[in-house]
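The records we work with from here on pair a chain with its fold. Taken together, the tokens spell out the fold as the letters spell out the chain. To see the layout at work, look at the sequence and tokens printed below.
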Amino acid sequence: MFVRYLHLYLFSALLIYSHTGNTASPPFKETQLKRNIQIDSEIQQRHRQQTVQQEAQFIPQTDIRMDTRQERNLQIPSAESPCYLIHHLSLIDYPSERLSQTEQFQWALDKAVADLQLRLPHCLGGEGLSILMKQIQNNIIEKGYVTTRVVAQEQDLGSGNLVLSVIVGKIGNTVVMDNGRVPRFTPLHALTAFTFEKGDILNVRNIEQSLENLK
């Protein structure tokens, strides 16, 4: 009788142990499956974030205007010393063999003279000459010619003539990088979108318009 009770007791103890073990820790396969699902979800989330970041790099911006800031409130000094009495102003291309040649940016000089209220003859010194050149440069930049520069070549100002030169900035090669996953740019786009070509005087407004056309 004692042996029978002992067997029943051991059998009951084994059942209790087995039941307790099953509830304490889930099967290995179920735990590993949940872990794999979690890892896969994190990988997919990371991939989505990278995709969004990459696509954002190639989304055209709504504001593509370039910086064309200029110096304002310029004024030529009324009296400088030393100075040269200037009777005539001219603006020519650089380089140029003919000092009497009318330059295509003559309008910028005329506007600068009016803006600065410069009346000839006027005795110009170093500061006055610099301000005059800056005002001409401002007028040129205001029209979009941001790579065109005004310079003063070596000359005899004792003659009463001040000749300024314009170094024209021109367009060289145009390269368009299409790094999208699905390229959208073709040579046909260049023919229809670009409002400029190689050798043209660089005007930022033409570039901005071309970028708008590519959107």
Residues 1-23, 54-65 have pLDDT under 50 and may be disordered. Residues 84-167 form a domain with the Ubiquitin-like (UB roll) fold (CATH 3.10.20.310). The two ends are 95 Å apart (CA to CA). The helical segments are 2-24, 28-57, 106-115, 126-142, 187-193, 204-214.
